[in-house]
Amino acid sequence: MSDIRPIGVHSGDNKFGLQRCPMCGRGPSAHFHTAGNFMFRDGRSSIEYRISALCQDCQDDVFGHFDIEKGDT
């Protein structure tokens, strides 16, 4: 399982305007981050953040991890 997270989305750039993940309560500084951005593994995860405000770790907890390149969960 790759933990590379090349896609950054500014914290608060979600439909709720939240600066922290609503599930774990951590901000971008508690995760893989770059200059206040939450970092995501792929485009689908960054889109989900904009909808739910969940960080990558919490998305993996809720939906499971799916590696698009490998085609596995």
Describe this structure in words.
The chain is α+β, with helices and mostly antiparallel strands. The protein has one domain. Helices cover 25% and strands 14% of the residues. It has two helices and three strands, in the order βββαα. Strands 1-3-2 form a three-stranded antiparallel β-sheet. Strand 2 and strand 3 (37-40) form a beta hairpin. It starts with 6 loop residues before the first strand and ends in a 10-residue tail after the last helix. The model has no long low-confidence stretch (mean pLDDT 84).
Ordered list of secondary-structure elements with their pairings:
Elements: E1 7-10, E2 33-34, E3 37-40, H1 43-52, H2 56-63
Antiparallel strand pairs: 1-3, 2-3
Distinctive features:
73 residues
Quick recap of the structure?
It contains 2 helices and 3 strands.
Order of helices and strands: EEEHH
Read across the widest sheet, the strand sequence of neighbours is: 1-3-2
Mean pLDDT: 84
Portion of residues in helices? 10-25%
The biggest beta sheet is recorded as: 3 strands, antiparallel
Domain unit count: 1
Kindly name the structural category.
alpha+beta
Give the overall shape. Answer: globular
The total count of helices amounts to 2
Question: What proportion of the residues form beta strands (DSSP E)?
Answer: 5-15%
Distance, first to last CA: 9 Å
Number of strands: 3
Contiguous uncertain segments of 5+ residues? none
Rg value:
11 Å
